[in-house]
Amino acid sequence: MGVSEESTGEARLTAAYPQLFTRDMERAAAFYREQFGFEVRFLFGDPPVYAQFSRDTVRLNMRQVDAPVLDREAAERGELLAAYLEVDDVEGLYREYAGRDVDFYLRLQMKPWGLKGFIVRDPDGNLLNFSEPADPS
Questions:
Q1: Relative to the CA of 38, which of 26, 32, 74, 84 has its CA 20 to 30 Å away?
Q2: Do residues 134 and 116 lie in contact, with contact meaning Cβ atoms separated by under 8 Å?
Q3: CA–CA separation, 54 and 41 (whole Å)
Q4: Mean of per-residue pLDDT scores for the chain
């Protein structure tokens, strides 16, 4: 059964905000602002335990947790991708992040399934995939 993008008259999903986890919200907020170029939309709590970051039309939620954020070994194997973010100029974003000395898990490359992209790692080990279709037509 094929996927149709035509409206069926039923309710439609309009956005998704992946939730990432951190052990240190203030460090994460500063990192996402300074390294990834995201705006801090809000920090909730005193000290902050929940936040939302945005850049253009993308939003990411973040929750502070006291437990280990993720399985580091699985993350190092690339098994725990936290978010996929589609970009309209992945090469430009890659150059921007390279100039900020961002931690690249995977450098810019073409994938056999038709995406060009890269993966970055935040201080908690969350992996974010920034990609675009190789042929955006």
A1: 74
A2: yes
A3: 7
A4: 88
